[in-house]
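Lab meeting, item 3. Inverse folding demo.
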């Protein structure tokens, strides 16, 4: 269900920069093209329907219209039919993770709790956040962006004119491969609603179920830093999947950090 670079979507990565560089190194959008039919695939289309259910401002209480919470359950039931989520469930079972049972309905309830149950970002504040909102939609607090690690949200916000891509972050080592339009991991700088994110890393072209699966697996295994190697058709990425808790047992944030990149 992963999209194909150069076929289902085309990137225009333009120029690289260091996080501290203020100048805009990208005159054009990151996404030169995304096949609209690709976003109509079942799990993609349900995922997209969730993105407009949230208010980005931290401290603003979330209120859901009739049917919006049901969309969350619909999404979880749909992705549980996918290979990544079935692997996630079986793998966590094999590791004896507390709270994970063989019953798929129970697992969906656990997914809802860690991803969609609301909590407050600030002590004593309103119920203004969730793991899903932070990771996939993005939040704004005190003129800074937190979260927004999803390529579909990035593309849709860029398409609306709400997001301005300003260049990719250069590799740390000269021995590493330069960023190009076929990469499935990008570290980016951008403005969203006029607020700057200096560094943000996202998987590119992957399915929603892939991201939920990898973040869920790492989060429920209980480690804040999880080292993995991602091999694609042309590249090898060494990653740390970082996962942090909020409200005792819910996802506060989860995102990839690229530590090395080779051909």
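The presenter then showed the designed sequence:
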């Amino acid at each position: 269900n992963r999209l194909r670079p150069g076929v289902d979507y085309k990137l225009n990565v333009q120029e690289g920069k260091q996080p501290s560089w203020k100048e805009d190194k990208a005159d054009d959008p990151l996404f030169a093209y995304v096949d609209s039919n690709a976003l109509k695939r079942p799990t993609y289309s349900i995922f997209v329907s969730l993105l407009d259910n949230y208010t980005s401002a931290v401290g603003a209480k979330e209120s859901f219209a009739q049917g919006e919470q049901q969309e969350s359950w619909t999404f979880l039931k749909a992705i549980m039919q996918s290979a990544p989520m079935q692997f996630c469930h079986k793998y966590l079972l094999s590791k004896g993770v507390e709270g994970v049972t063989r019953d798929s309905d129970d697992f969906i309830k656990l997914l809802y709790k860690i991803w969609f149950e609301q909590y407050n970002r600030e002590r004593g504040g309103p119920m203004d956040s969730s793991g899903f909102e932070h990771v996939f939609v993005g939040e704004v607090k005190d003129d800074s962006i937190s979260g927004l690690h999803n390529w579909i949200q990035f593309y849709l916000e860029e398409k609306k004119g709400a997001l301005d891509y300003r260049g990719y972050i250069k590799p740390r080592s000269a021995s590493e491969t330069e960023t190009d339009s076929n990469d499935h991991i990008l570290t980016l700088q951008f403005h969203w609603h006029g607020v700057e994110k200096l560094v943000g890393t996202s998987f590119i072209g992957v399915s929603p179920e892939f991201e939920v699966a990898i973040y869920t697996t790492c989060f429920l295994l209980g480690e804040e830093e999880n080292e993995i190697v991602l091999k694609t058709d042309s590249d090898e990425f060494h990653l740390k999947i970082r996962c942090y808790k909020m409200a005792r047992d819910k996802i506060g944030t989860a995102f990839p950090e690229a530590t090395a990149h080779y051909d």
